[in-house]
């Protein structure tokens, strides 16, 4: 097969798993059709495709918000036109591992809010759970429909230098990014309309339909057309584009807290013809802001009395309140034990080795090896507040140590994982950039479904390991090939 200059000049990163090139510098079979296609395109052709992608993102308002100095700046989400490709066998492994992990995590949430067997049996320390700010005593002994707490999740996966998949984070509260997965695919269809069917790429477009079906099934009222709403914090939220997209694709009302009211322990939506009872709320508002009568009294984003309606079983809330305790980074270290405890199985997907800095011995070890560590806040997100030890100055390391010593429980440390690389189109050339993967799982009464794909995030800066959009990252379409 003839290879163009794009690939002749491609230089994989030493010691890093390359998604396209094997160890012997030959192209992996599942990338061969894409390479053949790209090789027939001129730089001018690819530049035009890249420009078209930017215009499509701009015209459709596909943006995210970066918060800097208390100001929100709207940015177009950077998109790389070269897809990330996953084989059917790799996907089957990932899918099985995620289903196993979510089943155990859901058991864990039900357990700690009811019988707490995992605490009594000494598997997870009680102080780790009770010190978590997302463990909500208001949820204790509160039954949720079908015992499902994790309706929607986005599990962050990375690949180490040997190609092994690791779970980096469990995002179980209000995971974002699925709209970018959907829009990336729509744009790729415009850029490479013939290539997707030729490669046998599986579809991700069923996601809104599966989510809608699951929401319908949760309705406490057995009626033909329950009222479902998507509760958004409003236009200033960084993921507002996603809220509008999902509401439109599912055909449900997009509401804010001021659009809802609670009467007689039931939630109603204000309409031009009066109040309409709401059955299911897909909320994108965090727990703290959901009910000012129970949580943050200053919140203007939630609905006063909504927890009372939830407790009475008059409304279903997705995801369940109090989920944050299961994706706290201090709890993360115990997920393999949860899988063994609840399922009597060995974990399929591995955790990244993690040190809890609340443990004095582990903190001492981490402090001696900070230049090889990534340190994170247990409740941080978006790539903010991390210390990348290999790239930090001595002064930054010393300042971060002082922060850790104030509240050691609020920090974890992980060795710097190399993250796999994939080819990205940059100024007329293909260059390797580090990536991760966030597949989206939907947990409904009929089980767990994962659309074959996800959001592949890219660290666009050369040498960077940080893929978050807020830190200069972008994304690319994720192709899962049919068996």
UniProtKB/TrEMBL annotation:
Residues 83-459 form the Circularly permuted ATP-grasp type domain. SUPFAM superfamilies: Glutathione synthetase ATP-binding domain-like. Gene3D superfamilies: 3.30.1490.270, 3.40.50.11290. InterPro entries: ATP-dep_Glu-Cys_Ligase-2, CP_ATPgrasp_2, UCP005522. This is Circularly permuted type 2 ATP-grasp protein.
């Amino acid at each position: 097969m003839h290879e163009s200059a794009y690939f002749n000049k491609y230089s994989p990163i030493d010691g890093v798993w390359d998604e396209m090139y094997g160890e012997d510098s030959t192209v992996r079979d599942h990338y061969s059709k894409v390479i053949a296609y790209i090789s027939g395109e001129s730089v001018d052709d690819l530049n035009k495709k890249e420009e078209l992608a930017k215009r499509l993102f701009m015209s459709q308002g596909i943006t995210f918000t970066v918060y800097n100095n208390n100001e929100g700046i709207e940015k177009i989400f950077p998109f790389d036109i070269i897809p990330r490709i996953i084989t059917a066998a790799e996907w089957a492994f990932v899918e099985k591992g995620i289903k196993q992990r979510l089943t155990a995590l859901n058991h864990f949430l039900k357990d700690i809010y009811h019988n707490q067997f995992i605490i009594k049996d000494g598997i997870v320390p009680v102080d780790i759970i009770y010190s978590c700010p997302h463990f909500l005593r208001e949820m204790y002994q509160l039954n949720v429909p079908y015992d499902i707490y994790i309706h929607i999740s986005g599990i962050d996966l990375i690949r180490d230098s040997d190609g092994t998949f690791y779970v980096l984070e469990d995002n179980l509260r209000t995971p974002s990014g699925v709209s970018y997965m959907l829009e990336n695919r729509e744009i790729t269809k415009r850029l490479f309309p013939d290539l997707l069917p030729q490669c046998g790429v599986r579809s991700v477009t069923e996601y809104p339909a599966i989510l809608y079906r699951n929401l319908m099934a949760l309705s406490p009222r057995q009626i033909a057309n329950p009222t479902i709403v998507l509760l958004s914090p409003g236009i200033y939220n960084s993921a507002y584009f996603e809220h509008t997209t999902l509401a439109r694709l599912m055909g449900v009302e997009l509401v804010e807290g001021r659009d809802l009211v609670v009467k007689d322990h039931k939630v109603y939506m204000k309409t031009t013809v009066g109040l309409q009872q709401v059955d299911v709320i897909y909320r994108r508002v965090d727990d703290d802001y959901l009910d000012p009568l129970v949580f943050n009294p200053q919140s203007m984003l939630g609905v006063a009395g909504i927890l009372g309606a939830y407790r009475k079983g008059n409304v279903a809330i997705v995801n369940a309140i109090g989920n944050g305790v299961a994706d706290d980074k201090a709890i993360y270290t115990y997920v393999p034990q949860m899988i063994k405890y609840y399922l009597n199985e060995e974990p399929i997907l591995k955790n990244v080795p993690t040190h809890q800095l609340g443990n004095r011995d582990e903190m001492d070890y981490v402090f001696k090896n900070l230049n090889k560590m990534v340190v994170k806040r247990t409740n941080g997100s978006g790539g903010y507040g991390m210390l990348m030890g290999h790239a930090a100055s001595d002064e930054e390391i010393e300042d971060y140590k002082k922060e850790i010593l104030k509240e050691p429980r609020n920090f974890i440390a992980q060795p710097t994982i190399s993250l796999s690389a994939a080819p990205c189109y940059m100024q007329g050339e293909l260059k390797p950039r580090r990536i991760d993967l966030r597949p989206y799982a939907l947990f409904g009464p009929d089980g767990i479904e994962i659309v074959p794909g996800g959001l592949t995030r890219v660290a666009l800066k050369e040498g960077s390991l940080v893929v978050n959009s807020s830190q200069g990252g972008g994304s690319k379409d994720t192709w899962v090939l049919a068996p």
